[in-house]
Amino acid sequence: MGFTIGGSRGTKEFRSGVRRRGRTSECTTVAEYTGLWGWDAVPGARAAAPARDCSCGRTNCVAPGAHPLGFAPTVPGGATLDEVTEIWGEYPGATILLPVGRAFDLIEVSAEAGRRALVRMERMGLPLGPVTVTPDGRAQFFVAPGAAAELPQLLYRMGWDDADLDLRALGHGAFLTAPPSDHAGLGPAGWLRRPALDCAGGPPQARLLLGTLAYTCHRFRR
After folding, report:
1. Which of 68, 167, 169, 187 is an S-S bond match for 42, by CB 3.0 to 4.6 Å?
2. Which phi and psi (to 5°) does residue 166 adopt?
């Protein structure tokens, strides 16, 4: 049987100092994403190891611990700590999910290829946004919205359309597990490159990074 986040009033009450501190930490992190970086945030389900039962309670959940709670509202970009606390406090223990396709899209590659590409990009002085890494070995580069729709044409123009690349773009309808939240019961998501004031509000166009990412993925697979 799955466990439930916010399923009863009792689970919303924090009677211990540990739980109160935990909620404060969660809310502060969410408020950084919304207030400092301007990203929307959504309370997400969790998955419990070892069976990875999803907190949504569905035994046939197709994305355990990696989807929004259906009854939870979106915390809009720009929300203050007080506003976040009022909303997020109703969903103790929820993961922090960021909707993709609004402020950013993602280009996802293997974590090892992503690390190598990131080093190369920094040496080349390319504009960069944040980069996350998941516990199942994926690196996700923040790029300007629209990348998911443009990816096939961009790869064609660069001559990579017929290459067998471990590379995909995520856009509208996808959700990013934001660090330090647990991703799908596998462990915490992390940063390869943290958000910064000079890039988080306006990630680079995908075409500026795609050539290096495609080349690195191709070399890594070989």
Report:
1. 68
2. -85, 75
Q: What confidence score (pLDDT) does residue 214 get?
A: 96
| Predicted pLDDT of residue 200 | 62
Dump the DSSP string for the chain. ----SS-SHHHH---SHHHHHHHHHHHHHHHIIIIIT---BEEE--EETTTTEETT--TT-SSTTSSB-TTPPPB-TT--HHHHHHHHTTSTT-EEEEETTSS-EEEEEEHHHHHHHHHHHHHHT-----EEE-TTSEEEEEE-TTHHHHHHHHHHHHT-TTS--SEEEE-TT-EEE-TTSB-TTS-B-EEEE---TTTTTSPPPHHHHHHHHHHHHHHHH-
The confidence score (pLDDT) of residue 18 equals 35
pLDDT of residue 222: 62
Note the pLDDT of residue 13.
35
Q: Distance between CA atoms of 99 and 5, rounded to whole angstroms?
A: 20
Length of the chain: 222
Which of 222, 221, 217 has the alpha carbon at shortest distance from 116? 217
